[in-house]
Amino acid sequence: MSEDATFPTRRDLLSGAAICSGLVLLAPVLSACAPQRVAAPPIGVVPPRIPEGSPDFDTLNTLLQLELREIALANEVIAGERLDPDLARLAGEIRGHHVAHSEALRRLINDAGGQAGEARERYVLPTPLGDQRRALSTLLEGEIALTSAYRNAIADMLTLRLTPVLSSNLFADSTHVAALRVALDSDRSIVAFA
Amino acid sequence: MSSAAIAQFVAHEESAARALSDVATAADALAVEASRRGDGAELARLRSFQLSVAALAEANKHRAAVWASLAAEQDKATHSPTPPPEFKQRISDAASLDDLAAVVDDAEIGCAGVMVRGLGNLAGSAVRRQVAQAVAAIGDGLALTRAAIGKDPTPWPGVPAG
């Protein structure tokens, strides 16, 4: 059986992103809150030039939009003032990481000879987010979608030198998934492969 | 090239599993101390920590076996991986749960780090997916372990340089 038959393709990844952004109502985005800035992930590569028209640009821009959407979602969660202080701090930290990831992706795309997509004026988000539990569950769904997109991208990427940056982001996003599961008192089992 | 990267994964996973086993033993000694002092809260933290560390060590052993078998499938060349860091001295010097937790962080991040760096040398899509799943599991397991003892589960925006 070929790998293409076994694993999601680049098209699957892109359509997954489309489903993600096609959820419910409109909500204000990035301009609503100034995102917390943190250092970019420390592991990086000297970005290679990617051939013009390579599907890697689409994959990277898809990841960038998913990161930007998660920032918008975290902004909504925080702006709702529905969170306990510790959970608001967690949401803020998660947002800060996504800001760093989106900046790293943007640099990667531009340095590789592509054109990074801009943040949309508005993202389609499942608002209103409701109470604390629902808001955190929604944030968790976004994190799970992101980790899934990163795993697919790492498997599909043609330019292998880009994969360290993607996997470094994946590591951080996986800590978000775990932290949100703890906050929601959900499954805490530790596994060898996630 | 691929199997050299994977041999490095095996070395780090095995090293982390050994370190975590030593950490669990050291945590036992701290638990005896906490019990003697009647410090129930610290005892509970130590017990939660031990449970998480045991699960992390099992995950390390499981992945080490998977990587070893993968390397054997890829080619028969013998690779001598760079030795992973030793944690014995730090563990024997550890005076608190926080000291032990720092060892767990470093051992697991060491594993994630070699995988993140090694990915750029792995040509097969299926192997890259499996390594990505391992990196995700390490992040997830580390965050759960930190949360179990009341530490910030998400301090890293990416894999820290090892």
Features:
heterodimer; A: 194 residues; mainly alpha; two-stranded antiparallel sheet; 6 helices; 2 strands; globular; disordered N terminus; B: 162 residues; elongated
Give a written overview of the molecule.
The complex is a heterodimer of chains A (194) and B (162). By secondary structure, chain A is mainly α. Chain A contains six helices and two strands; from the N terminus they run H-H-E-H-H-E-H-H. Chain A has a two-stranded antiparallel sheet. In chain A, helix 2 runs antiparallel to helix 5 (132-156) and helix 3 runs antiparallel to helix 4. The longest helix of chain A is centred in the middle third of the chain and has 27 residues, at 85-111. Mean pLDDT of chain A is 82; it is low at 1-45. With 162 residues, chain B is mainly alpha-helical. In chain B, helix 1 runs antiparallel to helix 4 (97-118) and helix 2 (40-74) packs antiparallel against helix 5. Classes of the chains: A mainly alpha (194), B mainly alpha (162).
> Which shape of chain A, going by the Cα principal axes?
globular
Oligomer: heterodimer
Low-confidence stretches of chain A: 1-45
Radius of gyration of chain A, rounded? 16 Å
Strand percentage of chain B, roughly? Answer: under 5%
Total helices of chain B: the number is: 5
- Secondary-structure-based class of chain A equals mainly alpha
User: What is the mean predicted local confidence, pLDDT of chain B?
Assistant: 94
Shape of chain B: elongated
Number of strands of chain A: 2
The secondary-structure class of chain B comes to mainly alpha
* β-strand amount of chain A: under 5%
Rounded radius of gyration of chain B (Å): 17 Å
State the strand order across the main sheet of chain A: 1-2
End-to-end CA span of chain B:
21 Å
Helicity range of chain B: over 70%
